[in-house]
Amino acid sequence: MFSYRYDRMRMDGNRDDTTRVKESQILLPTGSYRVAPSDMDMQMHVFGFMYAPADWVTLSAMIPWVELEMDHITATGERFTTKSDGVGDLKLSGLLRLFEDATNHVHLNAGLSFPTGGLGHKDEIPIPNVGFRTRRLPYPMQIGSGSWDILPGLTYIGAIDWLSWGAQVMGTVRLGENRHDYRLGHRADTTAWAAIPLWDWISLSARIRYRYNDNITGADDSLDPNAIPTADPDLRRGHFVDLLAGVNFVVPLGLAGDHSLAFEGGAPIYQNLDGPQLETDWRITVGWQLTF
Questions:
Q1: 3-class SS of residue 154
Q2: What is the DSSP letter of 25?
Q3: What is the distance, to the nearest Å, from the Cα of residue 170 to the centroid of all Cα atoms in its chain?
Q4: What residues in the chain have per-residue pLDDT under 70?
Q5: Domains, the chain, ordered by start
Q6: Which DSSP string do the residues of 234-274 spell out, in sequence order?
């Protein structure tokens, strides 16, 4: 199977725990920082390949291209934007069948993330009494992790004639610090879904998803955690609960294979962040697959 997926996520406004925080509460003299992030846009193009050498195992490879853009405001009211883009971390994984009957399927996920993504992205930022200078960007604006990561998981899928359902638990375990002396936080991602067919070639889906991101260990010495919250390694932890809905199309083309097209969108219904930290407003995904 070849696949392409487009993801877009929009973040607008800041949150501390479960409470919205105004920019004036972050910036001096009321707050503690010279600069506050106001909003962020993330776009990701993911290219994938899957191959099943046997009925009990499926191997996959995924590589993303990531585009990030963040808007800021300073304590003096000046607004500026930083951008970064590039190839992300390569992920290789295997899906191993543990159990299967006429209705239920259980698989073990085992993967490894390679530190192929960029970690030294820079852009122009304002320096007090100096003006704009090119500096390394804070943690959320870097494309790669800079570390080797293990990707363990477990997937369950069930299906009958008119209904399919499933659940998945996935983790990201960071194995060590990167070359800038920090390690991104471990992650957990749990989701459950159900789908019903409308016709043979179209179905509707709904799912609920819980995400957890931990704080960063260590720190990049080139970043000033007192200048902006995004440069503070202790302000990256977050709990998210998302609701998402989708529509899926399958077009069988005989010897040309089966083409699948999927659309999904949703938004968090709960966010608890170590802040101030940008909150997530919405996310959408468009995906295409060719199976042969």
A1: strand
A2: H
A3: 13
A4: 254-257
A5: 2-291 (2.40.160.40)
A6: TS--EEEEEEEEEEEEEEE-GGG-EEEEEEEEEEEEEEEEE
